[in-house]
Design brief:
By secondary structure, the protein is an alpha/beta fold. It has helices at residues 19-32, 36-49, 73-84, 88-102, 129-142, 157-161, 174-178, 214-220, 230-235, 255-263, 285-305, 325-337, 350-357, 362-365, 370-379, 382-385; strands spanning 11-12, 15-17, 63-65, 68-69, 116-120, 147-151, 191-192, 202-205, 244-248, 276-281, 311-316, 342-345. Bound molecules: adenosine-5'-triphosphate and magnesium ion.
């Protein structure tokens, strides 16, 4: 439904918004001296441009709300809602929330810039943690973000696959910094991954073989009072330099994993689902059992230390529907979970194996491959790259 705006260049659309959100919008726009219609227009435009998942907003009891928008914006907004599988009311509520978060009240403390932290984890081995961690990190760097990719697995697969030597025992490393034994600045250890697409924005913190002893070192170090904060303490000095930090976790569920989960928790003033755990899984029963154990560990840590940990999503990796009922029914089970959503279903793709063999970053080696596209989809940067 459209009718002309007084100045003729906008159309009125019939929509709905929860009354509390509407009130907040009204007050904030007045405080900042911004026209409500402009605020809604900006909110919708930004929401459309950023397809990283947002926490659903309770829209029960939403009331009639009819903003004036530039011609065509509501049509494209509705198409985006359909693509994302959200109602128009939910889409508008998220757009308005986004604008409110981006435009704090005058006089309010500006929100500290928090890098997004993606913890790629699953204690089950060989499910694609390293492939996904490396791939999404590359996708973010390609999309213009400054990225730190942390090889948190003492096996050092990530480092090796990118042609980087893991750090020998006894030298300065992430593990040393986590155990309060750091000798120099961690930045000195970062390695920049070459590649035109990454523009010098993709950095790797290499693995160190000392990591095999990390749990024991943390457990026996009397100077460490809170084990779960060790990773955060080590990485915190680097955070200002990065927009996104991706952690490639080892296939284990020990103290080091607690520290990684804690690092991915939702921080104060951080929007939901910006940081959290990203879980590659396989379409088979043992993977489902492993997921239950991982979720148990996340929930019990969250309860013990009173944190919120967002699940960013699942990646069903190495999927082969030709394997029959076990594969197809397992896939259905992953999809039925709903939250976390299945962000991508990836088959066994040769480019992934070739890139590893050649010690090249996948998005540099095969930027047009299905595997590269899947990584952009998981990162939510697919549009930016096209
Ligand atoms: N979609 C894919 N297609 C083809 N090969 C893949 C795919 N995903 C992962 N691989 C390959 O499978 C192997 C295991 O994957 P990866 O190392 O990423 O798993 P992981 O979960 O990190 O293992 P670990 O638990 O040992 O750390 C690697 O050689 C990787 O390159
Ligand atoms: Mg790995």
């Amino acid at each position: 439904m459209a009718s002309p705006y007084p100045d003729g260049d906008r159309e009125k659309v019939a929509s709905k918004l929860p009354s509390a959100l509407r009130q907040e919008l009204k007050v904030r726009a007045a405080e900042l001296g911004i026209n409500i219609q402009d605020a809604v227009t900006t909110g919708i435009t930004d929401w459309q441009a950023d397809d990283s998942p947002l926490a659903p907003i309770d829209t029960s009891g939403a009331e009639s709300f009819s903003p004036w928008l530039p011609p065509g914006l509501y049509e494209s907004f509705k198409a985006t809602c359909t693509t994302r599988g959200v109602s128009y009311t939910q889409g508008l509520a998220q757009s308005v929330r986004r604008w409110l978060d981006a435009n704090p009240a005058a006089g309010a403390q500006p929100l500290a810039r928090i890098p997004e932290r993606k913890v790629v984890c699953n204690q089950k081995g060989g499910v694609g943690k390293t492939a996904v961690a490396a791939g999404v990190a590359q996708a973010y760097a390609e999309a213009g973000k400054r990225v730190l990719l942390v090889d948190y697995d003492p096996q050092g697969h990530l480092s090796e696959q990118l042609g980087i030597e893991p750090i020998p025992p006894g030298l300065d490393s992430l593990v040393a910094h986590m155990c309060a034994e750091g000798k120099a600045d961690l930045r000195d250890l970062l390695v920049v991954i070459e590649g035109e697409r990454f523009g010098g924005r993709l950095h790797v913190l290499p693995a160190c073989f000392d990591g095999f002893l990390l749990d024991a070192k943390i457990a026996t170090n009397i100077r460490i009072r809170r084990r779960e904060i060790t990773l955060e303490q080590a990485l915190e000095p680097l955070e200002d330099d990065f927009d996104v930090i991706v952690i490639d976790c080892p296939p284990s569920l020990g103290i080091a994993m607690d520290a990684a989960i804690y690092y991915g928790r939702r921080r104060k003033n951080e929007r939901p689902k910006k940081s959290g755990v990203l879980i590659p899984v396989l379409a088979e029963d043992s993977s489902a059992t492993a997921y239950v154990m991982l979720a148990d560990q996340i929930e019990s840590l969250a309860e013990d230390v009173d944190i919120d940990v967002d699940y960013l999503g699942l990646v069903v990796n190495l999927y082969d529907g030709r394997r029959g009922y076990v594969a197809t029914s397992s896939l259905e089970q992953w999809q039925q979970i709903g939250d976390p959503p299945v962000l991508a279903i990836i088959s066994d793709l040769k480019e992934q194996r070739e890139a590893v063999r050649k010690r090249r970053a996948l998005l540099d080696y095969a930027p047009q491959s299905d595997q590269a596209e899947a990584m952009r989809k998981i990162a939510g940067t697919a549009k930016a790259a096209s």
